[in-house]
Amino acid sequence: MRLTTILFLFFTVNVAAQTKGVVKDSLTGNPIAYVSIWVENENIGTTSEENGEYQIGTNDKNKNLIFSALGYQKKTVKVSESQIVLLSPSTFELDEVTINNKKEKKQLEIGKTKNTIAEAFDNGPRMDAKFFPYYQEYKKTRWIQKAIILTDSRIDDATIKLHLYDVDENGFPGNELLSKDYIITIKKGVTKNEIDLSDFNLEMPKTGIFVVFEKLLIKKNRVEKTIKNFNTNTTKIQTTYAPLVLYNAVERDFLYSFSGGRWLKRTREEMNPFSVSKTIYEPSVTLILTN
């Protein structure tokens, strides 16, 4: 596969319009790391640091912030009330787990694309989902063993979060299938990352599955570059967050994206209004199934 890095969108930070706070567990009072935080219905988001602290690019006290983390109930609060946010642990019944004698001799890689060129996008806080439909041929290799993602990182040890979702009644990403946050460490440069999922005993859902990688907008992933405008003799700081996920152009009519605290169905025309191409860009991700 030929890899091409193209930076289409820079994530900029308006330092003057910031709201700061901390996210904690409502029972223990302990900080919660890597909470996804969004300005409701806007493509403005961030991630809480390991100490639970966060800052987000708005100071409009009438707007809402949406906080979500695996294992906690989603919460919406006013910006004016977001200095200390307490999330309540989710209560749920665990499904009965059947331990199968998986031989893992057969492997099948699914999700490959015809396009051999992968391009790197910085889509800011937005999360894009890749859908894997179920086919009868998967019956003999129905266990999800690995996820493979292509990334491009300017720094060592950048981190990114993996999500797996089932399909809801409307065809959108539904329930999380992982039982805990899965944080992946990415090496510097263009890399092929193989993520072992065998410990989760996940069977390929017959309704299909969505694979999503979430950019963690935290200090350790921040990449800053000073840009000078020679016409005005001024400089500004350009901020991006590592790693970049690589994308493939595929023939498809729409893509599911998470922005503003909700999933959106983005059509090809919305994403590329001036393009005559029948393609959209989706994350360069494949799955390895085994028996």
TrEMBL record:
UniProt keyword Hydrolase present: yes
GO molecular function terms listed in the Swiss-Prot or TrEMBL record: carboxypeptidase activity
Origin superkingdom: Bacteria
One Pfam family it belongs to: CarbopepD_reg_2
Keywords, alphabetical: Carboxypeptidase, Hydrolase, Protease
Protein name in UniProt: Carboxypeptidase-like protein
Organism of this sequence: Flavobacterium lindanitolerans
